[in-house]
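Design a sequence for this backbone.
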């Protein structure tokens, strides 16, 4: 099952709105087939493993990281394929929360006389597809905040200069984060100040660039920005509270930008909950937030941050630098946003710390 989970990780950022699944067929102690969800969500992992195994699938055990599907979509149900292949046993890590499956796949397999065991490496499988589970159960994606700062938590000089706080190894890992998420989000401040492309620029992984999302209250993104000019190559969704009339939206839509009207929050800026609901409806399961201090603080204040990836360089800017986070308005330590550190990675002269929302957070 651990090997099946490793196979499944290959699909992160490539299969939305589907989960990423790994499958391993074993017969007489030998691996006879393996597969993982392919880009775009099809074919499924089980189908790929069965295709490789061929007739050797008969009487074999398949280890699969998520309950096999039991409904007709763009392809027939994986349950039908497993029954037709006469596998003897299905070892499944976790039940699929999709209402069209939700235990029915396992039930059909058992009804066909196939042994089914559920719960092997369940926690790891749930964490792997946490974004998919959140999409199905709470109608929002998994939210990861990415920050690159100095030791004193500054992300730029007072004049706005920020290139480069971290070194090449840390920046490369940041691009890998982009490759494993379905969408990346910034605010209009970052989009206007930096004119970023927000693509994955690792050799060989350029095609894994996520959809680009800009929270743009007043619809200020220029039509000649890097984001607008490349919108037909990699999707750009501008979410705004401004009236989406022809004078404002047409210059962007003509470039291929998708301008989306969002319900405003109390501060007349796009409501974070509404933004996440809209992204989930578009199939996004994993969202990487790379915005400036205003956006990062807004997500934290909304209580909608699941993971934090903090790249820390060994330099110091001082109090006149731009802080990573803006005011949070806290007046009681009981309301402190708390995260548990789960990993520390040395990247050249820099450090990457990975945090997950505390269980009681």
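Sequence:
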């Amino acid at each position: 099952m651990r090997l099946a989970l490793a196979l499944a990780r290959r699909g992160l950022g490539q299969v939305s709105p589907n989960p990423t699944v790994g499958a391993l067929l074993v017969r007489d102690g030998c691996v006879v087939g393996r597969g993982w969800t392919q880009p775009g969500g099809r074919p499924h992992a089980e189908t790929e493993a069965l295709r490789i195994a061929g007739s050797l699938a008969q009487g074999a055990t398949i280890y699969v990281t998520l309950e096999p599907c039991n409904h007709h979509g763009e392809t027939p149900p994986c349950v039908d394929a497993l029954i037709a292949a006469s596998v003897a046993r299905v070892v499944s890590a976790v039940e699929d929360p999709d209402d069209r499956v939700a235990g029915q796949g396992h039930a059909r397999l058992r009804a066909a006389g196939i042994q089914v065991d559920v719960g092997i490496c369940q926690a790891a499988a749930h964490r792997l597809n946490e974004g998919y589970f959140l999409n199905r159960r709470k109608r929002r994606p998994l939210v990861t905040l990415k920050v690159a700062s100095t030791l004193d938590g500054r992300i730029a000089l007072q004049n706005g200069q920020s290139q480069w706080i971290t070194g090449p190894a840390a920046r490369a890992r940041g691009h890998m984060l982009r490759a494993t998420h379905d969408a990346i989000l910034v605010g209009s401040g970052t989009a206007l100040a930096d004119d970023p492309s927000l693509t994955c620029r690792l050799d060989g992984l350029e095609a894994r660039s996520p959809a680009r999302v800009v929270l743009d209250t007043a619809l200020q993104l220029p039509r000649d920005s890097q984001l607008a000019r490349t919108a037909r190559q990699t999707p750009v969704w501008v979410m705004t509270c401004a009236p989406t009339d022809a004078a404002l939206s047409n210059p962007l839509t003509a470039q291929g930008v998708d301008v989306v009207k969002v319900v405003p929050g109390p501060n007349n800026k796009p409501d974070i909950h509404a933004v996440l609901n809209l992204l989930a409806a578009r199939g996004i399961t994993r969202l990487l937030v790379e915005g400036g201090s205003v956006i990062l603080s807004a997500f934290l204040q909304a209580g909608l941050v699941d993971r934090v990836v903090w790249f820390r360089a060994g330099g110091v800017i001082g109090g006149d630098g731009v802080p990573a986070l803006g005011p949070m308005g806290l007046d009681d330590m009981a309301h402190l946003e708390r995260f548990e550190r789960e990993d520390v990675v040395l990247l050249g002269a820099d450090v990457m710390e990975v945090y997950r929302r505390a269980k009681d957070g």
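The chain has a mean pLDDT of 92.
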